Amino acid sequence: MGKYTLARNVSWVGLLALSLVVAGCADNLAPGASTPSSSSAPGAAAQRTGARVAGTANVVYAGSLQLVNDEFLAPLFTKRTGLHYRGQGGGALGMAQLIKAKTLTPNVFESMGAAPVKLLMPKFTRYAIGYASSPLVVAYSPASPFAPQLRAIAAGKKPLRDLFLLMEHKGFHLGRTNPNTDPQGQAFILMVQLAVAAEHLPKGTAARILGGLTNPQQIFAEEAILSRLQAGQLDASSAFLSEAVQRRLPYIPLPNGINLGDPAFARQYRTQSIRLSGGQTVRGAPLEVYATTISGTPDQAAGRSFFSFLLSARGKSVLQKEGYRLVKPVVIGDRAAVPASVRKEIGR
User: Fold this and answer.
1) What does the pLDDT average to over 90-99?
2) From residue 27, how far is each of 118, 214, 308 by CA, in Å?
3) What is the pLDDT of residues 55-82, one digit of tens each?
4) pLDDT band at 53 (very low <50, low <70, confident <90, very high)
5) Mean pLDDT for the chain?
6) In the chain, which segments carry CATH 3.40.190.10?
7) What CATH code would you report for 136-283?
8) Fewer CB within 10 Å, N- or C-terminus of the chain?
9) CA distance 152 to 70
10) Which uninterrupted H or E stretch holds 164?
11) What is the mean pLDDT of residues 161-179?
12) Could you give the residue ranges of the DSSP H alpha helices within 199-338?
């Protein structure tokens, strides 16, 4: 995680088991486990408020949510409730498959996009709630030899089309995530395709930039890719706006028509599609953050408590501060299955 450190009392999850299982569902790279965030000891504040000090909110999330969960939300949640917290991140589609295989047994799952959550319905959950979005950006390294050009594009001094022509350069080191296991990896490819159409770029530009669906020179785990960028191993990388804000990375904003972060452009996003290694076709769609509780796993009450905190005014203020765009909560699946404490928060 580079210079970022997680809270005390870190509890490592079985990283080896995770990597072995996920290796089978991606051509080149499995979604690794992020460093789990810790749980602080129940504090006096929780005791004063009468909170029941028991159980752990065990949260599995899309890797892009790592910092906001582990460093910003978790300490506040523990202070408010006295409950412990454990977090683990990776490509959301891959993590959903691990939950289905019962390799991971969280009580909360947070996904970027609805597709990973739908993989768990109806056996592991009957509902999910969308509550925030974060558009794609292109983050870049200030140490890159291409930084002056990238900085000029970010400032609007050079046209956006120059970014995509620059990414074609053979010496340009671009990072993205595995589209077979991660919605961000899918979104980045769709974004490039949308940009080719919107910027009237030459035919074949997308193929020259990407070098294939799972180009091993570009594919990295979602929870590690920006650390590589910060270390100067990449010139630029796929990222969500929220990640760039949290890590204080320079980035190039993208128009709403191609950043897959604005529901108003849903029809335009849908004009592009990609075919995954397994044969599945994925069409462009607005990417929103969805979350749900997972049934049949330990400490259900702690999971519901974390989900309620996530959607509370305090939780949403943290999300907004850290670069997420709040949206009116959207329930997919069985609304009657939403826990009462969570329904209370989305009804406020």
Assistant:
1) 96
2) 23, 7, 37
3) 999 999 999 999 999 999 999 999 999 9
4) very low
5) 87
6) 15-132+289-346, 136-283
7) 3.40.190.10
8) C
9) 34
10) helix 161-167
11) 96
12) 205-210, 222-230, 241-247, 266-269, 300-310, 313-321
Amino acid at 259: N
Interatomic CA distance for residues 257 and 264, integer angstroms = 9
Q: Are 129 and 342 in contact (CB under 8 A)?
A: yes
**How do strand 108-112 and strand 56-62 relate by DSSP bridges?**
parallel
Establish how many alpha carbons lie within 13 A of residue 214's alpha carbon, considering only the half-sphere containing its beta carbon. 16
Residue 27 has pLDDT above 60, yes or no: no
15-132+289-346 under CATH 3.40.190.10, yes or no: yes
**CB-based contact 296:219 (threshold 8 Å):** no
Written as six digits, the tokens of 248 are 């204080």
**234 closest CA partner among 305, 163, 174, 156:** 174
Sheet with strand 84-90: strands edge to edge: 84-90, 56-62, 108-112, 288-293, 127-133, 325-333
Q: Which residues lie below 8 Å from residue 326, measured CB to CB, with a gap of 6+?
A: 131, 132, 316, 319, 320
